[in-house]
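Obj: model holo form, ligand = zinc ion.
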Amino acid sequence: MEDAVDTRRRIHADPEIGLELPHTQELVASKLAQLGLRMVMGRGCSSVVAVIEGDRPGPTTLLRADMDALEMPEDTGLEFASRTAGRMHACGHDAHTAMLLGAARLLCDRRRELAGRVVLMFQPGEEGHDGARVMLDEGLLAEYHPDRAFALHISSVLPSGWISTRPGTLMASADEFRVTVTGRGGHASMPHDATDPVPAACTIVTSIQSMVTRTVPAFDPAVVTVSTIHGGTATNVIPERVVLGGTIRAVSDRSRDLVLSKLGELCRNVAEAHGCRAEMEVQPHSYPVTVNDDDFAAHTLAVARRLVGDGAMTMPTPVMGAEDWSHVLRQVKGSMAFLGAAPSGVASPAPNHSNHFVIEEDAMADGMAMYAAMALSGDGEPA
Ligand SMILES: [Zn+2]
Ligand SMILES: [Zn+2]
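Output (holo structure tokens):
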């Protein structure tokens, strides 16, 4: 456990972003080498994959930890805080990496009990860089053919001692979009001689909200947020264009497809009503809905119950965040669970992605045990 805390702190102090995480990759590789494990490094990213063979035949279990940090300042005041300005491990991926390394050690020590094999997936680029997709494209599943897949995610707002998940939809999809509204620039005092894209863009923002509430079923929700608006340079100039940016989140493929199919049409029609043109682009790196296998989610909760008793909780609703683990769960039976790690004695802990995000490091012991227990658990154990 001391080793896991030390590893987590080293990664925390040296956060790396995106698909290239050379220092983190080197640290992970050195720890796996100490265990005598063979490794395969990614070609198009800093991934690390290692395999632990059990002494008995059984299923292949894929266990995943993501390793990347966020582009944001850290204001925790921790002694091992980020040493790189503008980068922070604010989503707990430092802890995920350390916990999976700790679990690897546990599993290597218990090879005799291990039926089947464990594939350790250390993944870069979860935070919007689609690292899991890159690993799949490089043949992860084709190479190892996992029968089941499990990932764990730290939460700084769930109490320490909790492990929670749910059958079915766990997390939302995420699609980023950009809408360019084009009119004709001119003098701000004579809008009649111009075609002003500003009111068109503002109407688009409010119309999107009406469209969502009138189109998407209330029990199968979606969220559309326009989070950036860029247009104009001077108060006496009507600009030629305004660019809107935002995100679409949905908890089913049906609602996601509904919004994606309506949004472009709405923007074009509203712009046209104002004499402007609108073009919508959806960014290619989208994350689908994260859906747990129902039986495997029940199995996950049963394993968690053995470790944390009543701390094994069924979540009442999905969360609207998104995960590229969703790509794996589309192809392999599996689940993701949340590990509570709220700092003790704090009334309202800072959430994941906050510049004040801190965790209770003791919770990492549960995380290590959970990863290992999932690999050691037999298929079809009673839920
Ligand atoms: Zn995150
Ligand atoms: Zn995360």
